[in-house]
Amino acid sequence: MKNIAQPAETVDNILDVFISDNVNKSTKDQIDTNRLTLTLLENEYITKVQDNSLFEIPRGVPPSLTLTKESLVYYYEYRMLTRENARAFYDRLILSAPFNICPYCTVKIVKTIDHYLPKSEYPYLSVTPLNLVPSCRDCNTEKKISYPINEETQTFHPYFDIVDTDPWIVAELISGEPLSFSYKVARLAHWDDNKFNRSINHFNAYNIDELFANEANRELRTRQLNLKNLLQRSRDELRHHLEETYLGCLNSVGVLDWQTIMYKSLKDNDQFLDGCVGNSYFS
Q1: Could you tell me which of 261, 84, 104 has the C-alpha nearest to residue 171?
Q2: How many CA atoms lie within 13 A of 244 on its CB side?
Q3: In whole angstroms, what is the distance from residue 114 CA to residue 214 CA?
Q4: What pLDDT, on a 0 to 100 scale, did the predictor assign at position 156?
Q5: Does pLDDT of 122 surpass 90?
């Protein structure tokens, strides 16, 4: 998971944008009538996500709103996606993820906007900027946790949780034929049970093992000849190359990138440095 900058806009700003897109008086009155309540609900969302208690937020439409679920979702699907001024905000948000990489999985390309709490269950957050996260299509549509039901199932939030500086994902080299990688969550000494369990749920919800392992296994195959040549020269030369590659990845893409984790695993793996005896990788 990659922490990214929060959007500067508030729901109040977005409502102003909607009005600027030449709405009729009835729609303007509807927006203004519900403006304060939507702002209060936004503030509650911010408090709850910071307290890791989003599961306490009620689903559905609060009685304090005069809007229906359909109207709230319409604000997003029509006013934000199709009207010129609001669409400009949507497009800026799409481009806000560094290098256009999905902050949930850190592998795939951003293609859409994900509602961290789904609009189908929390329609009053449909256009709340801090609930709108740039993401790849898979993380948007195929995540295994739709919304939290307790503290542990609140997956990491790219706008609020800073966990990409801790090495909580590790790689294991599997010495079968062919060589391959598996990724898993590591328990960090300074993390409490709740954070550790949240990390497991995030890892599983976004299929991190499969995504990281696919990338690492492809890298392992494409680097095979180069690594074989290094080992033929000497074990130390292979180890030095892996160390340099690891440090380069660490400096450029960070401690939690699949590639950094992969090369850390390889440089510290005596079996690999000794030529994977009994395996054909270095043959």
Answers
A1: 261
A2: 6
A3: 24
A4: 97
A5: yes
The neighbour count for residue 70, using CB atoms within 10 Å, is: 10
Report yes or no: 152 and 194 within 8 Å, Cβ to Cβ: yes
Give residue 219's identity as a one-letter amino acid code.
E
69 Cα distance to chain centroid: 27
The pLDDT value given to residue 146: 87
Interior angle at CA 155, CA 169 and CA 87, nearest 5? 115
> For residue 30, what are the contacts with CB-CB under 8 A and spacing of at least 6?
66, 67, 71
**Measured CA distances, 99 to 59, 110, 134 (Å):** 34, 9, 12
Is there a contact between 184 and 209 (Cβ–Cβ < 8 Å)? yes
| Cα within 13 Å of Cα(235), Cβ side | 9
Burial 266-279 (b: 16+ CB within 10 A, else e): bbebeebbebbeee
What are the helix (H) ranges across the chain? 11-20, 25-50, 69-74, 81-82, 84-94, 137-141, 193-205, 208-222, 224-233, 235-253, 258-267, 270-273
pTM, entire model? 0.94
Which candidate, 127, 128, 123, 132, places its Cα nearest to that of 42?
A: 128
- CA–chain centroid gap for 47, Å, is 20
Q: Give the Cα separation of 9 and 194 in Å (integer).
A: 31
Helices assigned H by DSSP within 60-192: 69-74, 81-82, 84-94, 137-141
